[in-house]
Amino acid sequence: MVLRPEELRSHRWYGGEGLRSFSHRARTRQLGIGAEEHLGKPVIGVINTWSELNPCHSHLRERAEAVKRGVWQAGGYPVELPAGALCGETFQKPTAMLYRNLLAMEVEELLRSYPLDGAVLLGGCDKTTPALLMGAFSVDLPVIFVPAGPMLRGHWRGETLGSGSDMWRYWDDRRAGLIGEEELAGLEQGLARSPGHCMTMGTASTMTAVAEVLGLTLPGASSIPAVDSGHVRMAAASGRRAVELVWQQVTPSSIVDKAAYEDAITTVLALGGSTNSVIHLIAMAGRSGIALGLDEFDTASRGVPVLADIRPAGRFLMEDFYYAGGLRALLAQLGDLIHRERRTVGGCTLEVALRDAEVYNPEVIRTQQNPVFAEGGLAVLRGNLAPDGAVIKSIAAEPELLRHTGPAVVFDGYADMQRRINDESLGITEQTVLVLRGAGPQGGPGMPEHGMLPIPEHLLRQGVRDMVRISDARMSGTSYGTCVLHIAPESHVGGPLALVRDGDLISLDVPGRTLELLVPQEELDGRRAAWTAPPPVYGRGYGQLYAQHIGQADTGCDFDFLARDGAVPDPEAG
């Protein structure tokens, strides 16, 4: 099916003889756009999450120009529309996750309320990718995603650095007294050397890879470094393709199905990707009208090997991954673990998109016969401490801690943890299980990345670099360690985590997929009867709206009024 110009959605704004159509054309002339430049042409929204407080997206102003160039070349009319930048956890507090759904709402309403026939979505920093796609799925106009791309490798004193991963490592060295202020100042200048998102396999790299395997980017787009000239060419090509998608009426719902989400899970596991992807993929699938649950991640994890040797679980960085062949090369190695007959916005099936993919460095991208890890790096845990599930990135943990029982030391919120973590009177040893609660979707608020609890300084000085840590928080995809995350339901709403006391024994068994609080049920019943809900965090505004409608981690943390089915009419434009 190919649309005729009068069938374009934007024609309802610009066509006809009515007063409103006249007004719309007149206001477009006010913008300096002549009739021949836009009438009868697809109007392509360029949704740009650029901001001066988002270093990961600092190049997207220029990339938007490349996208618009491509739209013009293909006979479309581009209009750039700004949207929330959501700067990872770098600047936005208490967490950018608090605002993921707000950006999804903004994108949905931008696409619906303006005379757009399709859109190019520019993002990449952690929550921007799922937010942009969630909003687009809810409207179902033709869209294509332009990933921001990873930054260049970090460097310091001859060492290659990975953003996030090496920050945590050297910060622990600083706390242990192994490096000083001079070294720290040098590290500040070497960790992040260019525009682009984290160049480790953190949440940003994981989620842009997800966008590609879902079929919503041009083939190979997610691996291109942000400052590579190929990234500019990809942006322009995406603009050209966006126009074709409108004429052909290729919408997300015609591409993204259950098989696409199964392939996304497989890809996350093969990449050794971020635990945050679990929450985002469940939310995205919900917007697609597709049921996706924690157990599907765990089942897949048992059968998908880790093939990408990328930090924090591996040795290399995203720039190396790109030179080794990028995501296309990795997908080609997955063979029949993925559904190759699926369509993509590139105009071909995944099979065709991967036909000439080649691995140029078999150390970075492994074969299934020579994996980095034989099983995927994520595990879903259940038990009386996490009845609705919890997640651990097992490949980023010390193997001897994957089965561990130890006494709890409990912190009620991040501020309490910061204040007391180095208090030696708490009796924390390497056998202790550190517990953080009040850090979930409601309690955080927003489920901040506090799940990689710091190791007490007296243990760091003894050489301890990992401990069992559990929380209802998330952690950065660039982090590592034996960190049990996303415990559901969270403590703030009365989940079992709220009942844990100092000294309680907690048993973690990752191979057995269990997380248990070893306290008699009658004792827990008594604690439950004495428990009182904490007061609301917000008394007004967006925060209160968030608290009233946010879901738990196991359901994707979407708003209930956005995740459900329901008709939303297109606006009357005449």
UniProtKB/TrEMBL annotation:
Q: What class of enzyme is it?
A: lyase
Q: Does the keyword Phosphoprotein apply?
A: no
Source domain of life is: Bacteria
Q: Which SUPFAM superfamilies match?
A: IlvD/EDD N-terminal domain-like, LeuD/IlvD-like
InterPro entries recorded for this chain?
Dihydro-acid_dehy_C, DiOHA_6PGluconate_deHydtase_CS, ILV_EDD_C, ILV_EDD_N, IlvD/EDD_N, Sugar_Degrad_Dehydratases
Q: Sorted alphabetically, which keywords does the UniProt record give?
A: 2Fe-2S, Amino-acid biosynthesis, Branched-chain amino acid biosynthesis, Iron, Iron-sulfur, Lyase, Metal-binding
Outline the extent of the Dihydroxy-acid/6-phosphogluconate dehydratase C-terminal domain: 363-557
UniProt EC number: 4.2.1.9
Share an example GO biological-process annotation for this protein. branched-chain amino acid biosynthetic process
GO terms assigned for molecular function = 2 iron, 2 sulfur cluster binding; dihydroxy-acid dehydratase activity; metal ion binding
Q: Report the residue ranges that make up the Dihydroxy-acid/6-phosphogluconate dehydratase N-terminal domain in this protein.
A: 41-351
The UniProt family comment states:
Belongs to the IlvD/Edd family.
Q: Which PANTHER family has this protein been placed in?
A: DIHYDROXY-ACID DEHYDRATASE, HYPOTHETICAL DIHYDROXYACID DEHYDRATASE (EUROFUNG)-RELATED
Give the protein name, as stated in the record: Dihydroxy-acid dehydratase
- Give the organism, scientific name: Crossiella cryophila
Lineage at the top is: Bacteria, Bacillati, Actinomycetota, Actinomycetes, Pseudonocardiales
